[in-house]
Amino acid sequence: MSMLYDQVGGSDFFIRLVDKFYEGVVGDEVLWPLYPDQSDLDGARERLALFLIQYWGGPTTYSDERGHPRLRQRHFPFAIGELERDHWLLHMQRAIDECAVDPHVHAQLTEYMVSAAQHMVNR
Ligand code: HEM
């Protein structure tokens, strides 16, 4: 079975997905205040895109640059409760709805994001 990374056509898909997601995040009154360095939006976009590219079977640039993901641990400094999770998922779902035309890709991404966001809840 081929990897989702190939099914969506490679890295560009994830860059578009993350761009769309962050359009929502920067205007979000719950999420944007959590960002420690709001001047590094390009960096934040790149880290998330590279992580997703690696997770779905593309190049491992994320771990080459950042090491083991340990995402739950990396999110401990940010207070993430159900409200933050729901805001995060709202913007991610909008991005998926816009970018993922293939229903199977849409379903896989949605299922993963719902579970990953729940995993990040730490308050
Ligand atoms: C549930 C709500 C979430 C909130 C409020 C949240 C918030 C944040 C914040 C404030 C950062 C720092 C931005 C930066 O990189 O400089 C960050 C980083 C990051 N987030 Fe999240 N996040 C959430 C869920 C997720 C999920 C579900 C994933 C993965 C599917 C994810 C992946 C990442 C990655 C890869 C980074 C960069 C980590 C690093 O290498 O330093 N986040 N997040």
Describe the protein's architecture and organization.
The structure is a single chain. The model has no long low-confidence stretch (mean pLDDT 97). The protein has one domain (18-119): Globins (Globin-like). The protein starts with a helix and ends with a helix. It is globular and about 35 Å long. The longest helix has 18 residues, at 82-99. It has helices spanning 4-7, 11-26, 41-55, 61-66, 71-75, 82-99, 103-119. Helix content is 66%, strand content 0%. With 123 residues, it is mainly α. It binds protoporphyrin IX containing FE.
Layout of secondary structure:
Blueprint: H1 4-7, H2 11-26, H3 41-55, H4 61-66, H5 71-75, H6 82-99, H7 103-119
Bound molecules: protoporphyrin IX containing FE.
Protoporphyrin IX containing FE binds at residues 31, 34-35, 40, 43-44, 47-48, 51, 66, 71, 74-75, 78, 80, 84-85, 88, 116-117, 120.
